[in-house]
Amino acid sequence: MSALNIKKGASSHSAYDLRDPNAEVIEVHTLAVVVDNEAGVLARVIGLFSGRGYNIESLTVAEVDHKGHRSRITIVTSGTPQVIEQIKAQLARMVPVHEVHDLTVEGPAVQRELALFKVCGKGDQRVEALRLADIFRASVVDSTLESFVFEITGTADKIDAFADLMRPLGLKEIARTGVAALSRGC
């Protein structure tokens, strides 16, 4: 038997793989929650997460129905499949909650985030910052002789990548909106 055949038939577990094979996988889910737009509702939703030790990676809230006084809360959270199901069930039981959608499992979704970056620098650093901003399709929304404020829209990964490239060029401050998401199609 050749070495190639032995490798193919060998166990996929390595002695150096220290992960627990019985541990559940942590998943990241994007939830869209439609709620009454009234005082205290956001605090109650956040309280559900903090009171049970659930993590919120991103949170975006805005009124989406002025006449019906409803807001949409977009929450990016992580946990085991069981924890995600528990979060959705607990949200759905809350009185001011009208709809809970798990965009991660309901099908393809579009997710975007807006960020502002303040980058301070002179000379070559300034030129390089402008060049990279152009590549990332970031817009200059403010400029002084020593700084730029860039506006960029995209996935969280794109914004993270832009931040990583701007750090050595004089990145001073970042403001991010959090994820806004909609399912694709009708």
UniProtKB/TrEMBL annotation:
Lineage here is:
Bacteria, Pseudomonadati, Pseudomonadota, Alphaproteobacteria, Rhodobacterales
The pathway is: Amino-acid biosynthesis; L-valine biosynthesis; L-valine from pyruvate: step 1/4; Amino-acid biosynthesis; L-isoleucine biosynthesis; L-isoleucine from 2-oxobutanoate: step 1/4
UniProt xrefs under PANTHER family: ACETOLACTATE SYNTHASE SMALL SUBUNIT, ACETOLACTATE SYNTHASE SMALL SUBUNIT 1, CHLOROPLASTIC
Record function comment? Catalyzes the conversion of 2 pyruvate molecules into acetolactate in the first common step of the biosynthetic pathway of the branched-amino acids such as leucine, isoleucine, and valine.
Annotated ACT domain residues: 30-105
Q: Does the keyword Transferase apply?
A: yes
Q: Which organism is it from?
A: Acidimangrovimonas pyrenivorans
Q: How does it assemble?
A: Dimer of large and small chains.
Arranged from A to Z, the UniProt key words for this protein are:
Amino-acid biosynthesis, Branched-chain amino acid biosynthesis, Transferase
SUPFAM superfamilies the UniProt entry points to: ACT-like
Name it.
Acetolactate synthase small subunit
EC number(s) stated in the UniProt entry for this protein: 2.2.1.6
- A Pfam short name: ACT_AHAS_ss
The Gene Ontology terms for molecular function here are: acetolactate synthase activity
Member of which family? Answer: Belongs to the acetolactate synthase small subunit family.
Catalysed reaction(s) here are: 2 pyruvate + H(+) = (2S)-2-acetolactate + CO2
Q: Do the record's keywords include Amino-acid biosynthesis?
A: yes
